[in-house]
């Protein structure tokens, strides 16, 4: 199994060795060793929770700078719908789109426009694949990765349609090649992202062989640069918008599901709630749901760690912004969506296994249980692992030892002290 790219990384010089991140990580991908956090890449799903929770700003996401535009002759900005929720008193999406062109992009292509096409395809797919119900949205890369490594029985429920960002990139590239006559390698498709998972989805895509996105720029990086151009654009606005209510609604929780025009859906956000839903789905606790929309970030994409606005305030702004818009502006008849479906099978990646085969796994699980019983079950995190069971698994994997537990270490020191005392007594008697 090849190493999976992860966007989140540690700035070691800022890490203080606290245990905030190991307690918050939903896949227990972080340990504290030798006073510094260590991220196990194969466990990481790029949810960004460690970035959000770290009080020392020692975790950060990898993304491209605005200078990436200099690598291409022609650049196209793909603004995520969550970008529109970052601005106060915005009443026209075209102001943002025009400002993006004024700041140097040659063209813009709304991801929300592609989202409306995905909504149409999803409606048809859900209707035609009742045997696959409930169908799980694949718009959030963190959720797809989580299912791939932890919920293999749910892979068959994944919606095999490209994300709106990837579809937008593909369509924008074709449009630009026809318009300019330039070759594909001279055109830069740059996605303006709310979260690090989108970076990973470009570098290590799931479900598709490769992404048409050439670079990912964080909303928080483009936001301060964009503001003055937006002020200049108010009196000189181009009509660039290609999306309506459905597309812009994708920026918040429930937006994608509501685009299916069905009441038989579930929408959940926040990684802990997502995991709870997936566990219940695995246990067949949901009856006759057609569709499940899951967002790793609270509030949906507006809650990504690369945004600047409070996610709930951003949702209110999106709601006001879409109020007088048409239901949808992009339709399948208007665009070529023949390449919108996945072309690569999603394989289960058993990264959490503690054995190379069934026999070894069972033996190791028994050993984990025995070790866990020896520990105090306080889950204090002092050992650098989030739980006593996680420490036991680390020991079995050969990356930790029993004495990492301070309670075991204390007993060991007391025992050693007692042995030394007895040796001193014997020495005095001689």
Overall average pLDDT: 92
Large-scale geometry: elongated
Q: Point out poorly predicted stretches.
A: none
Instruction: Give the tally of structural domains.
Output: 3
State Rg: 25 Å
What is the helical fraction, as a range of percent? 25-40%
- For the largest sheet, list the strands in their spatial order: 6-5-8-9
Q: How many extended strands?
A: 11
Structure class: alpha/beta
Largest sheet data: 4 strands, parallel
Taken in chain order, the helices and strands follow as EHEEHEEHEHEHHEHEHHHEHEHHHH
Percentage of residues in DSSP E strands = 5-15%
The N- to C-terminal Cα distance equals: 63 Å
Number of helices: 15
Describe the 3D structure.
The chain has 430 residues and is α/β, with parallel strands linked by helices. It has three domains: 1-62, Alpha-Beta Plaits (2-Layer Sandwich); 66-334, no CATH class; 358-430, 3-methyladenine DNA Glycosylase II, Chain A, domain 3. Helices cover 40% and strands 10% of the residues. It is built from 15 helices and eleven strands. The chain has helices at residues 20-24, 49-53, 93-102, 111-128, 141-150, 164-180, 197-203, 219-233, 245-249, 255-258, 271-282, 311-321, 358-374, 388-397, 406-429, and strands spanning 8-10, 30-33, 36-39, 59-61, 74-79, 107-108, 135-136, 187-193, 215-218, 265-269, 291-295. A four-stranded parallel beta sheet has the order 6-5-8-9, with helices on both faces. The chain has a three-stranded parallel beta sheet with strand order 7-11-10. The protein is elongated and about 100 Å long. The mean pLDDT is 92.
């Amino acid at each position: 199994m090849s190493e999976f790219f992860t966007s989140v990384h540690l700035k070691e010089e800022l890490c203080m060795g606290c245990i905030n991140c190991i307690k918050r990580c939903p896949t227990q991908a972080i340990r504290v060793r030798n006073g510094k956090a260590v991220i196990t890449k194969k466990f990481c799903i790029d949810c960004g929770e460690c970035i959000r929770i770290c009080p020392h700003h020692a975790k950060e996401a990898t993304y491209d700078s605005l200078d990436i535009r200099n690598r291409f002759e022609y650049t196209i900005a793909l603004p995520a719908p969550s970008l529109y929720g970052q601005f106060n008193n915005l009443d026209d999406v075209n102001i943002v789109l025009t400002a993006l062109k004024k700041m140097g992009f040659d063209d813009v292509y709304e991801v929300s426009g592609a989202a409306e096409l995905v909504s149409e395809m999803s409606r048809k797919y859900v209707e035609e694949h009742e045997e696959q119900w409930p169908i799980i949205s694949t718009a959030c890369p963190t959720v797809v990765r989580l299912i791939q490594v932890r919920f293999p029985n749910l892979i068959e429920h994944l919606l095999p349609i490209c994300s709106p960002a990837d579809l937008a990139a593909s369509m924008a590239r074709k449009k630009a090649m026809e318009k300019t006559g330039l070759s594909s390698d001279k055109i830069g498709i740059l996605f303006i992202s709310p979260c690090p998972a989108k970076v990973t989805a470009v570098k290590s895509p799931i479900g598709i062989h490769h992404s048409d996105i050439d670079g990912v720029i964080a909303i928080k990086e483009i936001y301060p640069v964009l503001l003055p151009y937006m002020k200049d654009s108010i009196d000189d606005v181009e009509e660039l918008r290609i999306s309506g209510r459905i597309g812009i609604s994708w920026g918040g929780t429930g937006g994608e599901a509501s685009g299916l025009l069905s009441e038989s859906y579930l929408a959940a956000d926040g990684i802990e709630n997502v995991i709870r839903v997936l566990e219940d789905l695995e246990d067949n606790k949901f009856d006759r749901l057609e569709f499940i929309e899951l967002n790793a970030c609270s509030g949906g994409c507006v809650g990504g760690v690369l945004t600047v606005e409070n996610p709930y305030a951003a949702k209110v702004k999106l709601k006001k912004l879409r109020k007088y818009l048409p239901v949808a502006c992009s339709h399948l008849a208007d665009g070529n969506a023949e390449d919108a479906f996945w072309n690569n099978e999603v394989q289960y990646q058993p990264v959490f296994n503690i054995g190379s085969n069934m026999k070894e796994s069972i033996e190791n699980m028994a050993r984990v249980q025995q070790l866990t019983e020896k520990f105090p079950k306080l889950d204090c995190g002092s050992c650098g692992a989030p739980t006593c069971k996680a420490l036991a698994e680390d020991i079995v994997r050969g990356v930790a030892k029993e004495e990492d537990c301070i309670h075991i270490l204390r007993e060991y020191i007391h025992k050693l002290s007692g042995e030394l005392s007895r040796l001193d007594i014997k020495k005095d008697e001689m």
